[in-house]
Amino acid sequence: MHDPASINGHTLTPEEQTGLVVIGAGPAGLAAALEAARQGFQVVLVDENPVPAEVMADDIPLLFGGRMSGAARNRGAMLEAFIASDPAIAAAFDAGVDVRLGTIAWGVYGNGPSVGWLPGPVVGLSDGVRSWMIGCSRVIVATGRRDMGLAFAGWDLPGVLGMTAALRLACRYGALQTRCAVVLGTTAEALDGARQLQARGIQIAAVIETAAEPLHPADDLPLLTSRIVCRAEGGPDGVSTLVVASRGADGVPVAGSEQRIACDTVILAIGAVPVIELLDAAGCRIGFASERGGAVPLLAENQHTSIAAIAAVGDCAGIWPKKSCDPAIAQAEGRRAVSAEALPERPISALDSAAYRLDWVRATVLSAENVNVCRCEEVTAREILEVRPPRYLNWPDDRRNQLDLRALLGEGPPHPDQIKRLTRAGMGVCQGRRCREQVACLLALSAGCGLGDVPLGSYRAPVRPLPLSVAAGREDPALTAHWDTWFGMKSQYVPFWEAPKHATVATRDAGGAVASE
């Protein structure tokens, strides 16, 4: 007898079909698209930029920190600036690549360990008005990087932003509303970015390093080492002052050593993070490589992931200093994913990025009292480490379990997904972009383990927020006719008129007919 609620017999029919989808129009993605077009592939190249100003205000996809000028609201001007910023974009148009800007890829699906019935790779796209699926033979993911957040008092003021966002606004759009900035960190990306901003007329008031020595030479920049960020001060218009203090031998601020630095912007540059959301949500194998920027996809020599039809190139495939300063390395990866072109031996950074990030979090975040690490859900470092329930529950302390991470979550490194479910840290509109790495660092410090030992918090599609009005249009009537069966709603939801006076999980009816049947 045919079960109408079964997935058997249902197929996914994408609205479009092409040979290759490239996600991301940076150096690696453009190089891949151009090489594929040269070889005669039918190529669709999508990039979410220019991002609408309303989305940028939620720090998506980068930590823009409220420092966008009014130009960000002029979508036409932003689009023109984006195209003009890289001649390779015009070259892609001329080569016959179907270039779609302002289009997000919210999901990638391919056959793998948990899915085997797809006709081939499928990518979910949205232009803000509608959502649709495009089928293809191969997908190349070139989604780039973002910056790790760092919580301190006042980091939610306008003017605290990531270096990647600052450079995007300044160099691609001419829309960075900054006159004088302080840079946190001495990574290669931090110092190179500071010099680029200087070249565009922005004063760098100081480069702050929490360690005794900078990671890279910074003799041409105003450097302050062995410092702890105490707070940013300012008002409705944003940051006006950054207060730092000398870091003592015990790792805490030295009494009476506070120093005030006048600035209108604080740029976070302690760690560039590969953007792997699509890859992880698709089921590609991910590993932790401190020398390559953290969590990265595990790749074959041809840049392909554990799902053969999906490749990763550019910064989402790994970040190290030489690659950050030389776009030719990312471009070679893009071409290699298409044609197996010979790639020079990958330079590996000597920097232990995990230890560096842990040191910053230990010095800055752990010493910050009542500062929200997760700004969306307003969760502090203490609430994360004590696994406190969300504040809106008003749960009294005398009715809580032990305040010990191991007692609550068991042996072994605690999982960020457990923390997310119990405290809501990482569950906000920014989808954890501001707090994800900080939560992992806090868990590593508390458990006394390495950052690479903390499991990767999961990503799920859609990896970009979609309005319900847009997402609803993608629903397949053949599936929505039995939505309550698909999602097991009989065991999860009982209409109020059928609910018993006293109900428990044990007595809940998990069987019987459901509404659609």
Unreliable residue stretches: none
Question: Based on helices, strands and strand pairing, what is the structural class?
Answer: alpha/beta
Q: Indicate the radius of gyration in whole angstroms.
A: 24 Å
- The overall average pLDDT, rounded, is 89
Largest sheet: 5 strands, parallel
Sequence of strands across the biggest β-sheet = 4-3-2-8-21
Provide a count of the helices.
Answer: 17
How far apart the termini lie comes to 14 Å
Number of strands: 23
- How much helix is in the residues? 25-40%
**β content, as a range?**
15-25%
Which outline best applies? globular
In short:
The chain is α/β, with parallel strands linked by helices and 517 residues long.
Structural summary, described in words:
With 517 residues, the chain is α/β, with parallel strands linked by helices. 26% of the residues lie in helices and 19% in strands. It has helices at residues 27-38, 53-56, 75-84, 87-94, 163-173, 188-199, 277-282, 321-325, 327-339, 353-365, 381-385, 405-409, 416-423, 436-447, 468-471, 477-480, 483-486, and strands at 16-17, 20-23, 43-47, 98-101, 104-109, 122-126, 131-135, 138-141, 145-147, 160-162, 180-184, 203-208, 223-224, 227-235, 238-246, 259-262, 265-268, 272-274, 286-289, 294-297, 310-312, 372-374, 379-380. A 5-stranded parallel sheet has the order 4-3-2-8-21, covered by helices on one side. Strands 10-17-11-12-13 form a 5-stranded parallel sheet. Strand 2 (20-23), helix 1 (27-38) and strand 3 (43-47) form a beta-alpha-beta unit. It is globular and about 70 Å long. It starts with 15 loop residues before the first strand and ends in a 31-residue tail after the last helix.
